[in-house]
Amino acid sequence: TTAVDASTTLPATTVPSDTTTGAGKEGTTASSNAPWLNDRLPLTLFPDHYTVTLRPVLEMDVATSTYYFHGSSSVRYLCNVSTDYVIMHSNNELTYNTPVTIKDNAGNDFPIESVNFVAINEYIVIKTTSPCEAGKMYTMFADDFTGELGDDLTGIYRSEYKNEAGVNRVIAISQMETTGARHTFPCFDEPAFKATFDFTLYHRSDQGFYAVANMPPIMFQTEMIDTVLWNSTTFDTTYVMSTYLLAVTVSDFLYEPATSTAGVQTYIYARPETIKNNEGVFAAEVTPALLDTIATHYDIPYTLPKSDQMAVADFGAGAMENWGLVLYRETLLLFDENISSVHDKYSITQVIGHELGHQWFGNLVTCAWWNEIWLNEGFASYVQYIAVDGVKPEYKPWEIFIIDDLQIALSADAYSNSHPLVHPEGRFSSITYSKGASFLRMVQSFLGETTFTGALKKYLNDQAFSTGTHDILFQHWIDEASANGLTFPYPLQNVFECWSLQMGYPLISVTRITPNTIRLTQEYFLIDPNDSPVDTPGSLTYKYQWYVPFTYRGVSEFGSTTITTEWMGQLTQPTNYFSATFTNSEDYILGNIKGNGFYRINYDLDMWGKLSLKLKDPSFKVQNRAQLVDDIFALSRSGRIDISLALDLATYMVNEDEYIPWQTFLDAMTYCEYMLGASPIYGDFSKYILDLVVPSIYADLGWDDSNTSDSALITRGEAIDAACTYGNQDCIDNAVMLFDQWRNDTTTIISSTYRTDVFCTAIREGGLAEWDFAWEQYLLSQNAQFQSSLRYGLSCSKDAWVLNRYLEYAMDPTKVRKQDIQNTFSYIARQEYGKYTAWAFAMNNWDRVINQY
């Protein structure tokens, strides 16, 4: 977080003295040098061990119409530097019903002078009558506190669902990243302040609930509290870990069991109805194998005795890597053979691989502060491909990397409002995830797998149960490269830094100078021609120039495994010239082989023309076909080349049958659609796309899913989506027919391959009756993936008043879950006839949207 000067931005820093009222109204103004004005905890105290008891009450308090949880906790901490202040995190929603106390390591009371709360930094500030003694342990006790068990998806919160009998069930779930733990109990809530934890969770004895947390249970007890019988579950002591990785749940879920070959137990927990419907089976099949694959790859066994996964109806993140108990949205863990799609199956495998990758990168070794969160998320985004490739290689994960991470990162990083990987605010963005993964993939490509992974094994072992920084990581790569006898033309530290400390990336221009000489130049690529660079600390050092491992093949080498690397210089050598020998004067090169490099390429017009013709050749690898399409349309958007050159190159798509290039092309067309949706030439634009889609993948793949490979199923979905969206009548007629069949008999199953497109097309071509029927089915469905298809289809209405009504429905959490409101807005806003409606609704209801969500 960015430091805040509270003495100047606030009228006064309120420090209340009443420990029983949380962040009360009265208090005094802190001095400007007070440690509680800093937004980072002081390094005077280090936590060692917590003991926490939580009792979520899953019935509403009638008097206040509020749900509550009750708790008690203690934290043993080391006095690192003598101080008379104990400062830790406590959100102002926590109410302390009894005074906090402190004891020294001998069990003697350590007198307290005052206890205050600083809301701006969410601190509890305890002033002791004398300073602690450096090197000694003390324990702070909070014996009775209360918090709201809200529905805000933060800390410990409540989730609700209707069971098979239609009865509403309230359960307790948690989400601690990044600051949820302080909403739950007083703690040192920063990633580097690791400790061990003992947790006890209570639940009523008469409601069929049980508790699951990070570690296995070790003790069960029963206790009468306020005339009600409660069960308690005490869990084994955790390993040393950060507060944001804690998971506490109380539910009535069932589970699907499995065990890895290494003997690690994994349960897939979910709503009873879904487990009975075998929706946890697929996750139970792949989880142990994914876990074993990662452990084997890094030669480091998984640390905990269990690795459970839980699907939750209300969950703000896609998934959360809590050590020993990963929590997911239902769409990303559960698979229904009758409803879920092949794409869902891949997504589930990929996301589980991502979260299990975190068990090493993030959990075992944690970023020292959120400014280095890419060390967690970038690595998990990279490791997920290793995991999927080891378990489901038929998914071709490293090809999918091109569209799921490389192209997403290139798009996000092409603006001056991007940010470097190492960033003070620690953003959870596509830069952090996808650029982080792309950077790692590029480093792997020039270090080689042996050096790259060998260094990571040592990094994980050396930093285990501690924290990492980019400098520590880079030094491991440098040392391993030296040990393996690798040499590079530039210092590796500078190579790594120019990519991690600067935002953006280079555009490499490739120009033929003589028949056998090609010139390479680099420039900072900004997609908006009116944009200009914004200096950051990293760019002041590296001047928006990069050390580029430019890989290429000559045309005679297409289809071979030959890759040549030319290192482009930086600072005093921004331009490289190199010579290559060609078979004749018509030869040319292809750069960035397999898309391993994080840069774009602009060829001279002659080379673009020759590459356009070569795209039809099967020797041209799928990753490079996709990346050429992505590069050329990005260049046209930036004004560096004429759009006609890009549209001409893309005419090769009529011969393309692979999903990755088609996804790339249609994503580029989506941007053009946004620009041209209301223009007089939209009809010509639609015809251009249909002339490529219909005679190729739409005609070849059709609508019949029988005897079709998984990759063909995904491509079929793309074909039907494009054909119906851009007005092919055969596609529209088929979609309307399938919708009508389902409307007349809801037991009819529309293929998950194109279900979303059928809903969208039928509602766009239909009227209020079609919309109302789909909305009714949305309310009746308990399957999150089916609901997601319906929510998208409902956004396709052409009637502004219907869309406004839909947005009002979305504001009601009893109709649309809070986690889904953003997607609902996005679905409507991406339609030409919906974007103005969504914008007007947001502007007219801004306070409502902000306050509620």
UniProtKB/TrEMBL annotation:
Cofactor: Zn(2+)
Gene3D superfamilies given in the database record: 1.25.50.20, 2.60.40.1910, Neutral Protease Domain 2, tricorn interacting facor f3 domain
Entry GO CC: cytoplasm; extracellular space; plasma membrane
Cofactor binding description: Binds 1 zinc ion per subunit.
Domain ERAP1-like C-terminal span(s) in chain numbering: 589-852
Aminopeptidase N-like N-terminal domain span: 47-245
Assigned EC number: 3.4.11.-
Annotated binding of Zn(2+), by residue: 354, 358, 377
A GO biological-process term: proteolysis
Catalytic machinery residues: 355 (proton acceptor)
Residue ranges, compositional bias (Low complexity): 19-30
UniProt keyword list: Aminopeptidase, Cell membrane, Disulfide bond, Glycoprotein, Hydrolase, Membrane, Metal-binding, Metalloprotease, Protease, Zinc
Cell compartments where the protein resides: Cell membrane
UniProt-listed Pfam families: ERAP1_C (PF11838), Peptidase_M1 (PF01433), Peptidase_M1_N (PF17900)
Compositional bias of kind Polar residues: 1-18
Boundaries of every Peptidase M1 membrane alanine aminopeptidase domain copy: 282-478
Organism superkingdom: Eukaryota
Location of the region described as Disordered in the Swiss-Prot/TrEMBL record: 1-32
Annotated site residues (Transition state stabilizer) in this chain: 433
GO molecular function, one term: zinc ion binding
InterPro entries according to UniProt: Aminopeptidase_N-like_N, Aminopeptidase_N-like_N_sf, ERAP1-like_C_dom, M1_APN-typ, Peptidase_M1, Peptidase_M1_aminopeptidases, Peptidase_M1_dom, Peptidase_M4/M1_CTD_sf
Family label: Belongs to the peptidase M1 family.
Entry protein name: Aminopeptidase
Organism the protein comes from: Ciona savignyi (Pacific transparent sea squirt)
